[in-house]
Each structure stands twice: as C-alpha cells, then as structure tokens.
Design goal:
CATH class of the largest domain: Alpha Beta
CATH topology of the largest domain: minor pseudopilin epsh fold
Bound molecules: manganese (III) ion
Shape: globular
Strand content: 5-15%
Order of helices and strands: HHHHHEEEHH
Distance between the termini: 33 Å
Number of domains: 2
Structural class: mainly alpha
Number of strands: 3
Strand order of the largest sheet: 2-1-3
Helix content: 40-55%
Largest sheet: 3 strands, antiparallel
Number of helices: 7
Length: about 190
C-alpha cells in the first residue's frame, strides 16, 4: 500500500496566492485519486509492491507489466510522486536552501533570471503538465516542462523543484490566467 503523505500545513496557508478551496480539492481529491488508482494497478504486481514509488518511476521502461498498465503507472504513479514533491517544496516552514540557491546562481546567473526562465517554461507548457528544475546525470541543473504526470525520474533526472500547471491547480481562482498563478506562486516559495 502506497500512502499519500499528510500535509503538515493547512489548506488556507497560501492565501491569497493559492486559495483554500483549490488546495482542498487538489490535495484531497486529485492527489488522493492518483494514489488510489496507483494502488489499484499495483495490486496486480506483487513484485512492484516491494519497490518504492521512486524506484518504480526510475525503472518505468523496464518494469515487467503490460503496456496499458505501464501507461497507468506513468500517469498515476507520477501523479502521486509529483504532488508529494510539490507540497514539500511549498511547505511554509521551509528555510532557504543555500546550496541550491548558489548552484542556481552559478547555472542561470541569478535567482531572478532563473525564475524568469522557469516561469516562461511553465507558461509555454501546452495543456496539462509541469515545469521542472532537475539535476541531470552529469549533475547539471536544467529547466524543462513535461506533459501530463510524466516524471523526470523516468528519463534519468532528479527533480528538485516543480510547478503544477494543470488547470486543476489554479482554475478556481485564476481561470485562464496561468501567468498570474505562476507569478504569485513564487510568493510562497521559500527554499531558494
Ligand atoms: Mn495537480
């Protein structure tokens, strides 16, 4: 059984940038459902139940499952783990990660420039998906977006920061104004 981690903060903590109702539905319905569906599929594969969610996604192309289930694992396993990281990097109790901030400055010039590139990447993701800051196999920091719930782990990268740009993440408050949601989201990020 894979368990959705508890949030150690309340749904209204990001007001006014992310509203309470969105948080409640996002965590309590969307994220919860990815976990539920993932557990349902994994039932069929006792060997996978011994692996962590991270290991499963890292080995996505190789795990011995039928192809329709591989797709379901990609979508629902990704949907589970991606949100775990998302809630974690937004934790209001976070302190600035000096090492990561320093690395970002070296790679992208400065934090402001990094935020611009990351925001533009999030804005340009066509349809549902996520913007990612990752560390690749050569330890280099990279920014890109991936569609749906695809995880950078499945292409060999380590996810460090992520921004959910599915409409369920912002539509109640921002409707079609994804750019405003992205700009305001930075107000709640404390780790860089
Ligand atoms: Mn989401």
């Amino acid at each position: 059984m894979f368990i959705q981690p508890k949030l150690n903060y309340s749904f209204d903590v990001f007001e006014p940038h992310i509203d309470k109702e969105t948080m409640k539905i996002h965590y309590g319905k969307h994220h919860m459902t990815y976990y539920k569906n993932f557990n349902d599929i994994i039932q069929k594969y006792p060997n996978l139940r011994k692996m962590s969610l991270k290991e499963i996604l890292m080995n996505l192309p190789f795990i011995p499952v039928d192809e329709t289930d591989r797709k379901k694992i990609q979508n629902n396993g990704g949907g589970s783990l991606n949100h775990d990281l998302f809630w974690k990097i937004m934790d209001p109790n976070n302190k600035k990660d000096q090492n990561l901030a320093k690395e970002i400055e070296i790679e992208f010039g400065n934090i402001k420039k990094f935020k611009e590139i990351f925001s533009q990447t999030a804005l340009n993701q066509f349809g549902s998906g996520w913007a990612w800051l990752v560390r690749d196999k050569n330890k280099k920091l990279k920014i890109y977006s991936l569609p749906n719930q695809d995880s950078p782990l499945s292409i060999g990268d380590i996810p460090l920061l992520c921004l959910d740009v599915w409409e369920h993440a912002y539509y109640l408050k921002y409707q079609n104004r994804r750019a405003d949601y992205i700009a305001n989201w930075w107000n709640i990020i404390k780790i860089i």
